């Protein structure tokens, strides 16, 4: 059973002994997890299994009770706030709803992180970067659209485009296919793969959608009651005799 990627260099993410308790209930229970360079790791589990808490701890929106989280060689539990903010710039986060600013058109939504973090960029360079990411997500003509004019799938694509503006080394996807129909979900899954291959991005994909896991995962880890209880490729886990694991694949 493959709990970690085979690595000759330090992985992009290394989590060891991660514990988190809320209101007396253990939400994460001794989680150990590594993500290699340009590797897609899917965390599969039912609602309440600790998936979202894992992501929150990884960007320190929630402080772990015990354990270490190393991202790109930095222990995020120990670094100061300035170092943490610098690291967060290298981490892309795709929320369930796309999290676009309703009062801005698509172009200005994409420009926002660049204006905040790359203030030296001229207008021509900024516009060229926006055109590139819109092309990458298959929406080259969407710049003048408002978020209210976008379908759910388009909103997810633009949300992904905005995270790509800062060229992240690590992507965190929180239920990327939630609320989408089958065809649109497949398009988003393909986009995740395309971005992995084009930019060599490492990704953690939180989902309960087995079709998403099958299409995007290099490796799947299964979270139950805050603990990783199984890990492997889709094909390996699909052959498991464990009744709980089989319930995801049937």
Query: Nearest-angstrom radius of gyration?
Result: 18 Å
Low-confidence stretches: none
Strand content: 15-25%
Gross morphology is: globular
Overall structural class, as computed from helix and strand content, comes to alpha/beta
CATH fold-level assignment of the largest domain:
Rossmann fold
Name the CATH superfamily assignment of the largest domain: P-loop containing nucleotide triphosphate hydrolases
Distance between the termini: 21 Å
Number of domains: 2
* Main sheet: strand order: 6-7-8-3-9-10
Main β-sheet: number of strands, strand sense, barrel status? 6 strands, mixed
Question: What value does the average pLDDT take?
Answer: 89
Describe this structure in words.
The chain contains nine helices and ten strands. The model has no long low-confidence stretch (mean pLDDT 89). It has 250 residues and is of the alpha/beta class. It folds into two domains: 160 residues, Rossmann fold (3-Layer(aba) Sandwich), CATH 3.40.50; 58 residues, no CATH class. 37% of the residues lie in helices and 24% in strands.
């Amino acid at each position: 059973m493959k709990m970690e990627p085979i690595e000759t260099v330090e992985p992009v993410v290394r989590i060891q002994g991660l514990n988190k308790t809320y209101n007396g209930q253990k939400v994460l229970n001794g989680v150990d997890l590594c993500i290699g360079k340009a590797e897609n790791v899917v965390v599969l589990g039912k609602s309440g299994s600790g998936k979202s808490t894992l992501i929150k701890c990884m960007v320190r929106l929630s402080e772990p009770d015990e354990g270490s989280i190393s991202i790109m060689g930095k222990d995020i539990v120990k670094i100061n706030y300035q170092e943490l903010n610098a690291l967060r710039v290298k981490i892309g986060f795709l929320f369930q709803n796309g999290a676009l600013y309703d009062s801005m058109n698509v172009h200005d939504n994409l420009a926002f992180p660049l204006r905040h973090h790359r203030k030296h960029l001229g207008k021509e360079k900024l516009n060229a970067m926006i055109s590139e990411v819109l092309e990458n997500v298959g929406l080259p003509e969407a710049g003048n659209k408002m978020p209210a004019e976008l379908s759910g799938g388009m909103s997810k694509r633009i949300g992904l485009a905005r995270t790509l503006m800062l060229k992240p080394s690590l992507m965190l996807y929180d239920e990327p296919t939630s609320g989408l129909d089958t065809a649109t979900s497949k398009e988003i899954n393909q986009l995740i793969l395309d971005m992995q291959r084009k930019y060599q991005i490492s990704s953690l994909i939180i989902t309960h959608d087995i079709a998403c896991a099958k299409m995007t995962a290099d490796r799947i880890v299964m979270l139950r009651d805050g603990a990783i209880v199984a890990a492997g490729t889709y094909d390996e886990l699909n052959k498991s005799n464990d009744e709980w694991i089989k319930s995801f694949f049937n």
